[in-house]
Amino acid sequence: MSKITIVLHDLRGGGAEKMMVRLANQMVEDGDYVDMVLITGGGQNKAYLDSRVRLTELDCARTLSAFIPLRKALKDIKPDAILAALTHINVITSIACFSLGWIKRLSVSERNAFSLDKQVNSDPVMKLTYFIAPFVYRLIPRPVIAVSKGVANDLISTTIVRPKDLVTAPNPVITKETIDAAKQAPKHEWLLDKTEKVIVAVGRLAYQKGFDMLLDAMFEINKTLSCRLIIFGEGELRAELQQQIDTLGLTQKVSMPGYTENPIAEMKAADLYVLSSRFEGSPNAIVEAISVGTPVVAFDCPHGAREILKDGEIGALVENQNAKMLEAAIQEGLSQNKLSPTEPILTVEQFTSENSAARYRELILS
User: Fold this and answer.
1) Residue 239: helix, strand or coil by DSSP?
2) In this structure, are 186 and 135 located in the same domain?
3) What is the domain extent for residue 227?
4) Contact residues for 222 (Cβ-Cβ < 8 A; gap 6+)
5) pLDDT tens, N- to C-terminus, the chain (366 residues)
6) Three-state secondary structure along 165-229?
7) Residues near 170 by beta carbon (within 8 Å), at least 6 away in sequence
8) Is 57 in the same domain as 188?
9) What CATH number did the domain enclosing 222 receive?
10) Are residues 154 and 197 in the same domain?
11) Which long-range contacts (CB under 8 A, 24 or more apart) does 314-317 make?
């Protein structure tokens, strides 16, 4: 049994937060002692954290002000291994570990396309963090854990990080809980009483997710094929996307019901899952959709979709940000049948929580 601490900003409804909760839960299930330290606190995913994971919420207003509280929390816990996730958390945790003389205990994780993610963060402090991070990654003894080969290659090609500074580990997407959750009925009325084909998309309502392009494709598709789209998620572009829906006359064809506690049940009931992101790290929702046999159409965005879909072998890959090609692929995808009941999870077996936790444990404790 090992004592492992995971450091995050909070437990909001994002993919990174969800994956770290699932990783912590699997590790504690496997017998490790797991602490989770949040720089701020709260978030939708807090409810899913196993009660055996000890949670510490520092309630710091900003990451910059977290150094002393974080250092104290780590010193009190005295972990065998520390795992930080997301660029700004990686940097502040590295500084805290340097000050404690514990840098050999630290592993950091990059969850997104570094070169693209930094472009959409306009905050001056975040810009400085993205500038500093590659130098930190060169200095720390343990390699950075990237969620996909694409994320690793992006860091190598756009920063001073070297190939020897990086390793990869799959996300813990499929768990006992997600398998049970998939057996539940969907809650959206369009999926409960399906009168026409329904497409599902899941993600933060933000520029990165490309829902504006998906809405343009829906407008064209509905000229010849009547179908509906449900986008599950919340974010800063809600009003802008709703305006686009209204302008395109898609009010009866597109629904944005907000965050859902059980996206995998909604995906299972859908006829097609679509990933319209401009960039990603390792899009977990694709794995979830495949695991329940729902056909997938995805932009070949940097990064992760091509790896998960095995170069298009188990899902349609579309030229990145080409809305016309997305439109055609969706129309073709809506004509596909579900995968056979035994095939889906075997196809994405590397993303089970057991396999993911074993890989992370190997990397952070070796």
Assistant:
1) helix
2) no
3) 177-347
4) 250, 253
5) 899 999 999 998 888 999 999 999 999 999 999 999 999 999 999 999 999 999 999 999 989 899 999 999 999 999 999 999 999 999 999 999 999 999 999 999 999 999 998 888 778 888 999 999 999 999 999 999 999 999 999 999 999 999 999 999 999 999 999 999 999 999 999 999 999 999 999 999 999 999 999 999 999 999 999 999 999 999 999 999 999 999 999 999 999 999 998 999 999 999 999 999 999 999 999 999 999 999 999 999 999 999 999 999 999 999 999 999 999 999 999 987 766 555 566 778 999 999 999 999 999 998
6) HEEECCCCCECHHHHHHCCCCCCCHHHHCCCCEEEEEECCCCHHHCHHHHHHHHHHHCCCCCEEE
7) 147, 282, 350, 351, 355, 356, 359
8) no
9) 3.40.50.2000
10) no
11) 314/290, 314/347, 315/286, 315/290
* Secondary structure (3-state) at 238: helix
Rounded to the nearest angstrom, the gap between the alpha carbon of residue 15 and the centroid of all alpha carbons in its chain is 3
Both structure tokens of 124:
């001056």
163 with 200, same domain: the answer is no
State whether 153 and 232 are in the same domain.
Answer: no
Q: Identify whether the C-beta of residue 175 lies closer than 8 Å to the C-beta of residue 27.
A: no
Confidence (pTM): 0.91
The continuous run of DSSP H or E covering 15 comes out as helix 15-29
- Tell the residue number behind the tokens 């975040």, with chain if given: 126
Are residues 90 and 111 in contact, defined by beta-carbon separation less than 8 angstroms?
A: no
In degrees, rounded to 5, the angle at the alpha carbon of residue 137 between the alpha carbons of residues 135 and 141 is 120
**Do residue 119 and residue 164 come from a single domain?**
yes
**Overall domain count for the chain:** 2
Q: In which residue are the tokens 């055996």 written?
A: 52
Class of residue 321 by CB neighbours under 10 A (exposed 0-12, middle 13-18, buried 19+): middle
Residue 83 CB coordination number (10 Å) = 28
Q: State residue 325 phi and psi, 5-degree precision.
A: -70, -35
**Cβ(93)–Cβ(73) below 8 Å:** no
